[in-house]
Amino acid sequence: MKFHNVRIVYFSGTGCTRLVAETFRNQLLETGHTTTIVELRHDMTHDESDYDLLVLCFPVYACNAPQIVITYVKGSQVVHHIPVALISVSAGGEMTPNLACRTSIKKELTRKGFAIHYEKMLVMPSNWVIATKPCLAALLLRILPKKIRPVRLEATKTYNQ
Ligand SMILES: Cc1cc2nc3c(=O)[nH]c(=O)nc-3n(C[C@H](O)[C@H](O)[C@H](O)COP(=O)(O)O)c2cc1C
Q1: Which of 58, 66, 108, 130 has its CA at 20 to 30 Å from residue 10's CA atom?
Q2: How confident is the model at residue 160 (pLDDT cuts 50, 70, 90)?
Q3: Cα gap 59→125, rounded to integer Å
């Protein structure tokens, strides 16, 4: 058994999270999942089409989810236990100031009836205060598909597998 309809929703300021979301989408399509991908914008309306797994990807901004992501979840309809894979993207990774970056969004998702199924932090180049050195940034982009593979496998694992 596997998830049939995966909906990827993402926000990206400068493209790092977009690359994560698109790589995820491409690997899901290769493994036979039906996948839709939606970029969050301020003027968008909610599309409530059917899906059985939500993959929500966002960059860490000031140790939290960006406001547009929180607003999106607050505005979504109440669902009945739809699993969510939560992927945060940051320059610093899973380190002290970032540790609570998924807490507020998890609270909002739970309030709406979503079930947190999986969560993961992925390190991508920095677009804030201190730039990542170009050689490291290039490496982070090059190894991204390899890093996504186990994340995708875990995120799409169902209880009956
Ligand atoms: C306003 C702002 C705040 C940020 N705050 C953090 C932070 O608290 N911790 C961190 O590790 N990275 C932080 N970053 C860096 C981004 O999370 C990181 O560069 C990410 O790869 C950007 O993804 P994007 O291109 O999809 O926006 C911040 C970036 C911006 C623009």
Answers
A1: 130
A2: low
A3: 11
Which of 18, 20, 23, 60 to mutate to test ligand 1, by most ligand atoms within 8 A of the CB atom?
60
Checking if the pLDDT of 72 tops 60, the result is yes
Q: What are the structural domain ranges in the chain?
A: 5-155
* Conformation bin of residue 75: beta by default, left when phi > 0, alpha when psi is -120 to 50: alpha
pLDDT of residue 156: 94
Q: For the domain 5-155, what is the CATH code?
A: 3.40.50.360
Query: Measured between alpha carbons, how far is 106 from 94 in angstroms, rounded to an integer?
Result: 16
Ligand 1 atom closest to the CA of 15, numbered from 1: 25
Q: Residues 7-59: pLDDT tens digits?
A: 999 999 999 999 999 999 999 999 999 999 999 998 777 766 789 999 999 99
Angle at 140 between CA 139 and CA 146, to 5 degrees: 100
